[in-house]
Design a protein that fits this description.
mainly alpha; Arc Repressor Mutant; elongated
C-alpha cells in the first residue's frame, strides 16, 4: 500500500456555462426520478463473444440488448426460484 499522501487543494469558485448547467439539471432530474421510482443502475462486465451473442439474440427478438438482458435475467431468476420452491415476488416484474 502506498504511503504517499495527497494534499487537497481549495475548492475552485466558478460558474457553469449554460450547457454545463443544462447537463447538471438533466443529471439531477434523472437521479431524482430514479430515487422516486426505485430504479437502480447496475454494471455488468462481458467479454466480446458473450456480448455479441446477447446482442444477436436481442436483435432477433427486436429489442435493445439491455432490455433483453434484463428480461432474460428476470425470467431465469423466476425459473430458478420455482425450482427451489421459493416465492417469486411477482410484483417486481421488469419494466
Amino acid at each position: 500500500m502506498s504511503t504517499n499522501s495527497r494534499k487537497l487543494g481549495e475548492p475552485v469558485i466558478t460558474e457553469m456555462t449554460d450547457t454545463e448547467a443544462a447537463m447538471m439539471d438533466a443529471l439531477t432530474a434523472t437521479t431524482e426520478s430514479d430515487l422516486a421510482t426505485g430504479t437502480l443502475h447496475t454494471t455488468l462486465r462481458w467479454n466480446r463473444e458473450q456480448l455479441d451473442v446477447v446482442r444477436c439474440a436481442a436483435e432477433r427478438y427486436g429489442m435493445p440488448y439491455q432490455t433483453y438482458v434484463k428480461d432474460a435475467a428476470f425470467r431465469r431468476a423466476l425459473e430458478d426460484l420455482r425450482r427451489l420452491g421459493e416465492p417469486s415476488h411477482r410484483s417486481a416484474a421488469p419494466a
